[in-house]
């Protein structure tokens, strides 16, 4: 089995981590996200909790095969915050994730090098503090068949380690099945070999 049908992400937000440098405090957070709305909500929530902070810098990556990412310096010098945070997302090879580093300014300027180090370290700590999980990239199929084929279909589902996501059993059987991408072709061909069973990709 090839590994190109898996990806890594987190299921739960990390605990808050803290990195300090010259009186500045950098709080790091990692959140599981699926949409840009999720991202907006997480950042708004943090701004309420840390309303006295100076900067809320972040980076995120969404998607599995079609990747979308953004890095935001939030008023820090260009590329001194967002990109170092995003670098850690790449380094840990995770997706569907948002990392925010909240900075309280301590009165001493750190310089661009110091900022890059601080934001990178806080992001790294947030990721180290997260439980990273591996998930499979799954494809969904709709399968329609007469009751007499039930045992054949159940056997194919079992053989390819697929899951029934929903079923409608009326005059005939309608199943929505999800299967990891690496097994999808073989499952499709197995079902297709029965001429009176219909299968289509969703």
UniProtKB/TrEMBL annotation:
Residues 22-127 form the Impact N-terminal domain. It comes from the Bacteria. This is IMPACT family protein. Pfam families: Impact_N. Belongs to the IMPACT family. It comes from Winogradskyella litorisediminis. The lineage of its organism: Bacteria, Pseudomonadati, Bacteroidota, Flavobacteriia, Flavobacteriales. InterPro entries: Impact, Impact_N, Impact_N_sf, Ribosomal_Su5_D2-typ_SF.
């Amino acid at each position: 089995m090839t590994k190109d049908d898996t990806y890594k992400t987190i299921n739960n937000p990390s605990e808050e981590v803290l990195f300090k440098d010259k009186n500045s405090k950098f709080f790091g957070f990692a959140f599981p996200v699926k949409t840009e709305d999720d991202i907006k909500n997480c950042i708004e929530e943090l701004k309420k909790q840390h309303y006295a902070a100076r900067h809320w810098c972040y980076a995120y990556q969404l998607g599995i095969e079609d990747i979308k990412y953004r890095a935001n310096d939030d008023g820090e010098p260009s590329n001194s915050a967002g990109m170092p945070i995003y670098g850690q997302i790449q380094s840990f090879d995770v997706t569907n994730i948002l990392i925010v580093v909240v900075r309280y300014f301590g009165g001493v300027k750190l310089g661009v090098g110091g900022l890059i180090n601080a934001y990178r370290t806080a992001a790294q700590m947030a990721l180290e503090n997260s439980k990273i999980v591996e998930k499979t990239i799954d494809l969904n199929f709709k399968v329609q068949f007469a009751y007499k084929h039930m045992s054949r279909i159940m056997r194919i589902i079992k053989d390819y380690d697929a899951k029934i996501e929903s079923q409608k059993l009326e005059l005939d059987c309608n199943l929505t099945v999800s299967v990891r991408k690496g097994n999808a072709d073989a499952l499709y061909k197995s079902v297709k070999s029965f001429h009176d069973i219909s299968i289509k990709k969703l």
